[in-house]
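step 3/5: co-fold with 4'-deoxy-4'-aminopyridoxal-5'-phosphate
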Amino acid sequence: MYERYWKEMGEKTTLVISGWQSISYFSDLTNLCWFLEPSFADSVLRLHKLVGNAVTQDRHIVVGTGSTQLFQAALYALCPPNGSEPMSVVSAAPYYSSYPLMTDFLKSGLYKWGGDAHRFSKDNNNNNRRPYIEIVTSPNNPDGSTRRAVVNRIDGILVHDLAYYWPQYTPITSPADHDLMLFTVSKSTGHAGTRIGWALVKDKEVAKKMTKFIELNTIGVSKDSQLRAAKILQAVADSCDRGGVGSPEEGQATFFEYSHNLMAKRWNQLRAAVEKSQLFNLPEFPCGFCKFSAQSFQSQPAFAWLKCEGEMEDCESLLRRWRILSRGGKHFGDTPKYVRISMLPRDQIFHLFTHRLSTIQS
Ligand code: PMP
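step 4/5: write tokens
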């Protein structure tokens, strides 16, 4: 979806790295996160300030190979090294399907997947207060809902995955202000293949332990990728900074205007197809005022959480028969009546998808 915008930007985001540049393991030995490229850190701070989606004061930035590496670094850093039992990692269903897989992959003694946070909360009365980490994903993957923690225990540890808290997907109502927040270029600018994410971390010791995890895991994070991500984030910030160097010409959209409008168009197209077919249902989202764009709108998530109405039990198989690929609800801790569909492919694929969906008959 983002490819066309970046093509139109042409040379603005071209980066040349000569053979002699960025050779060392080290980026900034004065920083707690010693492999963090200063120019990448600057671009992160500038963009958050412009968009107003996260508090960056008194936070440590830890860069990761995607927010996927930072998720694992966070689990490692947040668990006491000598707890009597593994910490339960929970998230409210439907949750991002990779969380359980990433949590249990290496059979860590520090933590284990604890499933749906709603159920964990019910099972954990005062006599059975197991330690836990809750992952709060807002807007949520797969259903696009705006979320808060659900377990709400005073000793609870939270990780906020804010991959989709950007103004093309949802109104920016206030700067997120949590202990540990994860972001990624995969969803903010579309550069999933660059594999760059960042964490904003309040606690110094937690940030240090996350840095240690990445040091032992990959001895840092690709400098080439950080420099490319910095260039892209600066281009996004330039496009929003009307009147500044690199701001768009008269009548040209900023990055967030462009991507917001495209998402709005796609959601209208999808809702029209669903209405035509009459076999499916989509979530509705409340209207919110976006302080960044100074307009009210409903969330328009990166994924559609589609429900098959009526007798049909397995929505994924049904759609496959109509040559639509989706991911069934079971992967997300929900029923097979639901599927998740990406709203971010290239135009041609998206048009084909909505056309096929609209022709499905009972
Ligand atoms: N968190 C959520 C909620 C996601 O949807 C994704 C990507 N699907 C990720 C994290 C992973 O992002 P990255 O590419 O930065 O590893």
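step 5/5: annotate
The chain has two domains: 3-240, 255-358.
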